[in-house]
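User: Could you check the structure of this?
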Amino acid sequence: MRKSPLYINWSTFPRDFPVTFGLAVVNVVIFFAAKLGLIGPLVSFPDNLNIGTFGAHFFHHQLYHLASNLLILLLVGRLLEPQLKRWALPITVLIWLGTVGLLWLLNDVPVLGFSGIAMGLLTFAMILYRRNRQLYSILWPMVLVNVLFGLMPGVSWWGHLGGAIAGVAVFGIWKLLKR
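Assistant: Sure, the predicted structure tokens are below.
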């Protein structure tokens, strides 16, 4: 029987997908450290450039928020890391910094969570796999659902949109650098 392209072998996951695994661990550690009172909330506030501006993207207030972002990270990371190889970490960092920059410039409400980075990775993957019908048919609805989710009250529209824009921009930069 042929395995799904989204199949994950959990016993080898940390070795096979070190960037994705590391990001998941950082998100989980920050979540539980906050729940245990070891760290305070990390929130990105408009017009305020500090540690919260950068750290907020790894902070989740509720377990379902963390779980939904980790689901996207694990699925998309599983698709991207084998293709990107040594580029996986720099691309993720550029998407993170691009999301931070766009939020800092354009956003007018406090933001927290990995959604922007997840959306950036998701749009990057959607463009990368645009010629693979099987994967594209999975990725574009995920992007659409995330865009629609970003329109809900209390959810950061700019976080989702900023991540998507960062993902598209970083894809373009990556293609230029690969030449």
